[in-house]
């Protein structure tokens, strides 16, 4: 038990040291205190979703894409899964050295309901190592189009919740760069004429299309700000909950935006023609 007030009862001090939230001598300094605050800030969004997908008969299954050092997975496990006999946290990451480190740390801490797969987000959709039912999908700063693959994964697995903090999506900006020359007559092109605006607007438009994609599949989407997370500039937090809502309006909007901006080559990324609208299994 720690005598540091910010540390919750039962929290693993060993984990907090491994994550450099506690210093080697078990203390918080100004920097690490801020880091811990950020962790709790994110946890406050995810804890209700974990509670909602956990009951006496089953534990929540959470898949974290582009896990990196699995910072998020470890924290969620420590704060929520550790005291329960069901549930699972699965980290997907294509850098083998990070997967090995996470496996070693989970073993050391006795976090046996954690699993780490050395794979791409896209390949993990068909991985036999992932259960058919996934309740929550997270992707925090998963690079570029990995967020889109995480959305596909969530749709395929009929996840009830998706929690996404997109990173540097450059693909759509590249397409905008190509089309702006052809549509210079259009007044709206001014929104992304300057190169910095092309990049920023491309990133913004990508997230708009992601939200519409989720809404077109029956999800309710909330977009908010994840303040101060790792000092990143990319702090847009998208939380989607499957509610079986009608998606036709969002689907029409999605198609119209793609058409109006001349982004036809991106259509497949955001519109998947499946006759079955997914929902939690
Ligand atoms: C910026 S880091 C974020 C790590 C972690 N989610 C966090 O917020 O601390 C992005 C991670 O995603 C991994 N990654 C990027 N694209 C991926 C993909 N397509 N499949 C699997 N991992 C990917 C990278 O190797 C990197 O470790």
Looking at this protein, list some descriptive labels.
alpha/beta, 281 residues, binds S-adenosylmethionine, 14% strand, seven-stranded mixed β-sheet
List the helices and strands and how they pair.
Layout: H1 13-18, H2 30-52, E1 61-65, H3 71-81, E2 88-93, H4 96-109, E3 114-118, H5 121-124, E4 136-140, H6 146-156, E5 161-165, H7 171-182, H8 195-216, E6 219-225, E7 236-242, H9 248-260, H10 267-270
Helix pairs in contact: 2-3, 7-8, 8-9
The chain binds S-adenosylmethionine.
S-adenosylmethionine (SAM) is lined by residues 66-68, 71, 92-95, 98, 120-121, 140-143, 146, 149, 167.
Distinct compounds present: S-adenosylmethionine
Helix content: 40-55%
Quote the beta fraction: 5-15%
Mean pLDDT rating: 90
**Low-confidence segments:** none
Sheet with the most strands: spatial strand order? 3-2-1-4-5-7-6
SSE arrangement, N to C: HHEHEHEHEHEHHEEHH
Principal-axis shape: globular
In whole angstroms, how far apart are the ends? 40 Å
Largest sheet: 7 strands, mixed
User: Helix/strand/pairing class, anyone?
Assistant: alpha/beta
Question: What would your notes on this structure say?
Answer:
It is a single chain. This protein is of the alpha/beta class. The protein has a 7-stranded mixed sheet, with helices on both faces. The chain is globular, with a radius of gyration of 20 Å. The two termini are 40 Å apart. The site of S-adenosylmethionine (SAM) has 18 residues, from strand 2 and helix 6.
């Amino acid at each position: 038990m720690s005598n540091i007030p910010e540390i919750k009862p039962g929290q693993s001090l060993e984990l907090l040291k491994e994550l450099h939230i506690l210093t080697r001598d078990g203390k918080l300094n100004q920097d690490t205190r801020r880091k811990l605050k950020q962790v709790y800030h994110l946890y406050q969004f995810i804890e209700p979703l974990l509670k909602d997908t956990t009951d006496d008969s089953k534990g929540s299954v959470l898949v974290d894409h582009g896990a990196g050092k699995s910072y998020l997975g470890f924290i969620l496990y420590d704060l929520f899964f550790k005291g329960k006999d069901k549930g699972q946290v699965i980290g997907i990451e294509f850098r083998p050295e990070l997967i090995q480190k996470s496996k070693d740390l989970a073993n050391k801490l006795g976090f046996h309901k954690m699993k780490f797969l050395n794979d791409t987000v896209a390949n993990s959709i068909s991985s036999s190592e992932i259960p058919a039912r996934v309740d929550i999908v997270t992707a925090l700063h998963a690079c570029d189009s990995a967020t889109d693959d995480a959305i596909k994964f969530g749709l395929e697995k009929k996840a009830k919740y998706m929690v996404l903090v997109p990173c540097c999506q450059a693909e759509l900006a590249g397409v905008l760069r190509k089309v702006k020359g052809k549509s210079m007559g259009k007044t709206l092109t001014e929104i992304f004429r300057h190169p910095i605006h092309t990049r920023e607007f491309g990133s913004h438009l990508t997230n708009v299309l992601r939200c519409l994609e989720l809404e077109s599949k029956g999800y309710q989407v909330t977009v908010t700000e994840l303040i101060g997370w790792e000092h990143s500039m990319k702090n847009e937090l998208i939380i989607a909950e499957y509610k079986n809502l009608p998606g036709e309006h969002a689907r029409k909007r999605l198609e119209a935006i793609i058409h109006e901006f001349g982004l036809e080559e991106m259509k497949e990324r955001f519109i998947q023609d499946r006759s079955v609208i997914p929902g939690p299994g």
